[in-house]
Design brief:
alpha+beta; 4-stranded antiparallel sheet; 2 domains; single chain; globular
C-alpha cells in the first residue's frame, strides 16, 4: 500500500466520523429542557445581599423565612457575624401582605456576590433558587466571605 492510499483512508475515515457525529447531534429532543437554569421574571419587591467574614455553605434553594422563627432557625447554621447581619437586614426589610421573604447563601469566597438572578417559581410551596455570578478565578483571600441574598417576592 502506498503512502497516498494510507493518507486517503485516514482522511476518509475522519470525514465519515465527522459526518456521523454531526448527523447524530442534529434533531435533539427539546423536551429534555435547557442545561442552564431557567431565569424567571418575577416582581421583586426588595432585594439585599449581606456579606460578612465566615465560611458557610452555598444553598441549593432559597427558603421562605417570612416568619421570624423560620429566620432564626435557618440562620442558626450561619457563622456569627453573618447571622447577626442577616437578622438585622431581614428585620429592616418591609414584607407586604401576600409576599414572602426568601433567604439563601449564594456565595462563599473572597468577594461579595454583586447580584443574583432568580430561578424558579414564587409562592409558599414553590422552589426558588438564587443564582450569583461566578467569582473571578485565582483570587487569594485572607478570609472567606459568606454572601446571603434576602429577597422579598
Amino acid at each position: 500500500m502506498t503512502m497516498t492510499t494510507s493518507r486517503t483512508r485516514i482522511l476518509l475515515t475522519a470525514l465519515l466520523l465527522a459526518i456521523f457525529a454531526t448527523a447524530t447531534a442534529c434533531g435533539e429532543d427539546e423536551a429534555d429542557g435547557p442545561s442552564s437554569p431557567t431565569i424567571v421574571d418575577v416582581d421583586v419587591v426588595a432585594q439585599k445581599i449581606v456579606s460578612a467574614p465566615g465560611a458557610g455553605t452555598v444553598g441549593d434553594q432559597a427558603l421562605d423565612v417570612t416568619d421570624p422563627a423560620d429566620l432564626r432557625g435557618w440562620s442558626k447554621a450561619l457563622p456569627a457575624p453573618v447571622r447577626q447581619q442577616v437578622r438585622q437586614a431581614a428585620q429592616a426589610m418591609q414584607v407586604p401582605e401576600g409576599r414572602h421573604l426568601y433567604a439563601q447563601v449564594v456565595r462563599v469566597g473572597c468577594e461579595t456576590a454583586p447580584s443574583i438572578e432568580i430561578d424558579g417559581g414564587t409562592g409558599k410551596n414553590s422552589a426558588v433558587r438564587f443564582v450569583a455570578p461566578t467569582e473571578a478565578p485565582n483570587i487569594d483571600c485572607i478570609t472567606a466571605l459568606t454572601s446571603v441574598a434576602l429577597v422579598v417576592l
